[in-house]
Design goal:
With 365 residues, the chain is α/β, with parallel strands linked by helices. Helix content is 49%, strand content 15%.
């Protein structure tokens, strides 16, 4: 490779291929700009103001929000051009019901607006990553700051609140009667605690413990617990209070976190030691395949997933020397099953919950 100061060797160009490549490249920049506008729409309450309001002009939206009409006009036009709002003529734009579900209604399981809430923190991380590329050492999730933890919480919370207890848990064999009678439960990688607290509210006779290493996430979790006055849940800094190795838990969950860990194999071993011989471990992790080719073929969001990996998942998984570095798409079921077997588990069964991003597995000793 020539030194960076030298120009690249000139090669003949196909004009049509050049135009197509440039269009594809700047299409990705368009997506970045639209993502920034979605972030602003969320922060300013614009989607909530548009929800159920029918077609609105920028002046009408300004009256509803108290914001400046000229800025709103440009934002509405961008959202219309991006296909997120419907243009109804005469300067009016409308957020349709599907858009409301995805962008405004955080009680709907399809809502994904929270993932845009951490966009500025993610992009700020990009400025620090050249050093990671040079040294191999990534950044932990707390590098995103409190807003990063809040964004992850808001991103995952709609599904947890709408579907975890009424839809997912009943599909885990023999689980509900145990939770109803009283069980000791742990959520490893609990984040802001939404999943754990939803379970704790639904099963007051059971005892729930959340474990994480993110100080920002644990602070959010404790705030959420105190706000809802949930007495049967506790949160633990996993570095200071690790999972007990006493086989005292009957049910353990890991939601979307194993691939982010620097030592997922060590965590699996700790889970086995903490779980009773008749206990159940429910895993949720990103749907992945065993090769790059299959990931690209089967996952229309593969480019976004690999980019997310560089910005957060891989970075977290390499944030300590010797980190596993699996990354977002690094835990296909074959690898995950081998790792659980190495940790002492003998039962590994996929659980089809129809989730668009995550795969689920029921694991037992």
């Amino acid at each position: 490779m020539p030194p960076a100061s030298q120009p690249p060797v000139s090669r003949p160009l196909d004009p049509e291929r050049l135009r197509a490549y440039a269009k594809r490249t700047f299409g990705h920049l368009e997506g970045a700009m639209t993502s920034a506008m979605i972030y602003l729409g969320d922060q300013l309450g614009l989607y909530r103001a548009l929800a159920g309001a029918g077609p609105l002009t920028s002046s009408e939206l300004a009256e509803r929000t108290g914001l400046h009409e000229r800025w709103l006009r440009e934002w509405l036009q961008q959202q219309g051009a991006a296909g997120l709002l419907e243009f109804r003529g005469e300067g009016r734009f409308e957020l349709e019901a599907e858009g409301e579900a995805v962008l405004a209604n955080e009680a709907h399981p399809a809502c994904g607006i929270g993932f845009f809430a951490r966009l500025p923190a993610q992009l700020r991380i990009a400025e620090r990553l050249p050093e990671a590329f040079r040294t191999g050492l990534g950044l932990p999730y707390d590098a995103f700051g409190p807003e990063g933890a809040e964004g992850i919480e808001r991103g995952f919370a709609p599904w947890f609140r709408a579907l975890l207890v009424p839809f997912a848990l009943p599909r885990v064999p023999d689980l509900l009667p145990r939770l109803q009678r009283g069980e000791r439960v742990a959520d490893v990688g609990c984040g802001a605690g939404i999943a754990l607290l939803e379970m704790a509210k639904a099963f007051p006779h059971s005892e729930f413990h959340g474990y994480d290493v993110s100080q920002h996430a644990l602070a959010r979790a404790e705030q959420n617990r105190a706000r809802d006055a949930i007495p049967n849940a506790r949160f633990h800094d996993a570095r200071a209070e690790p999972l007990p190795a006493d086989g005292s838990f009957g049910f353990i969950t890991t939601f979307d976190c194993l691939h982010d860990m620097t030592d997922p194999a060590g965590t699996m071993g700790a889970i086995r030691r903490a779980l009773r011989d008749d206990g159940t471990w429910l895993i949720a992790d990103i749907k992945a395949h065993g090769s790059y080719e299959r990931n690209v073929e089967k996952n229309p969001m593969a480019a976004m997933m690999y980019g997310t990996s560089v910005l957060s998942c891989l970075s977290s998984a390499l944030s300590e020397p010797g980190g596993a570095g699996f990354g977002t798409l690094g835990l296909p079921p074959e690898r995950l099953q081998r790792m659980t077997q190495a940790a002492g588990f003998t039962h590994f069964e996929p659980l089809d919950l129809g989730h668009p991003v995550n795969a689920f597995y029921v694991v037992r000793p």
